[in-house]
Specification:
The chain has eight helices and nine strands. It is of the alpha/beta class. Strands 1-9-8-7-6-2-5-3-4 form a nine-stranded parallel beta sheet, with helices on both faces. Strand 3, helix 2 and strand 4 form a beta-alpha-beta unit. Helix 6 crosses helix 8.
């Protein structure tokens, strides 16, 4: 195992997708933080299905790193109106000039459908499309289920997943052994999807012993209960 380096993603558009509750936000925030060391970086909250995305917490986490966080106009309010910030286009324009852009997409195929508005622009930028999975989440307990969700997301947004992130956890009680137990699941999904494993994430102070790269995440989302 080795620590993941974001250098290969610098200056790229990175689209982060996955099942509801798989941990896309924490993955997106950490990637944006790492990419900020290579130059101008944006994190775009593109969850137009659920405007209550807790992006303000992520913005506070990323502020010291100079990451520009773009959130829906009505995020963190009681106004339920899906809207795309004009700053999204600004970010994608800057991406043509070397800026790194991380797009945190709403969960499952419903969230991915909203990417249709950006489809042509994204294709021209040759994005890295990441599928985040959690082997311990309901509905993706088997790698075949995770593959089905991934295919639904691809069909909905018209983009092909190019990399996987194993964000398997059971919350605060997660041990390294819990993560290590999902290595077989991750390999089977990777083989079937035809996409390599970008890294395996963890949050505790005991890195898991798994094949490939690992990346320590910080929980940047506010607890509601």
């Amino acid at each position: 195992m080795r620590e993941f380096s974001a250098s290969a993603l610098a200056g790229r558009v990175v689209v982060v997708t996955g099942h509801f509750g798989c941990g896309k936000t924490n993955v997106s925030a950490e990637l944006a933080k790492r990419l900020s060391s290579y130059g101008q970086t944006y994190l775009i909250d593109y969850d137009n299905v659920n405007p209550y995305f807790r992006a303000a917490d992520t913005a506070r986490f990323l502020e010291p790193y100079g990451v520009k966080v773009v959130i829906p106009e009505f995020a963190n309010t009681n106004v339920d109106i899906p809207a795309v910030s004009p700053l999204v286009n600004t970010a994608l324009t800057d991406a043509q000039n070397g800026a790194s852009v991380v797009i945190d997409v709403g969960g499952d195929m419903l969230g991915a459908i909203s990417l249709g508005y950006l489809h042509e622009k994204l294709l021209r930028l040759d994005p890295v499309v990441i599928y985040v999975f959690n082997a311990y989440r309901p509905l993706t307990g088997e790698w075949q289920d995770a593959l089905t969700v991934m295919k639904e997301i691809e069909a909905a947004c018209g983009l092909t997943v190019t990399a996987l992130v194993n964000n398997s956890n059971i919350g605060a009680e997660t041990t390294s052994a819990d993560i290590e137990a999902t290595a077989g699941y991750a390999k089977s999904l990777s083989d079937a999807a035809g996409a390599g494993l970008l890294f395996t994430s963890y949050m505790n102070n005991d890195p898991p012993n798994v094949p490939g790269d690992i990346l320590k995440l910080k929980d940047t989302t506010k607890k509601l209960f």
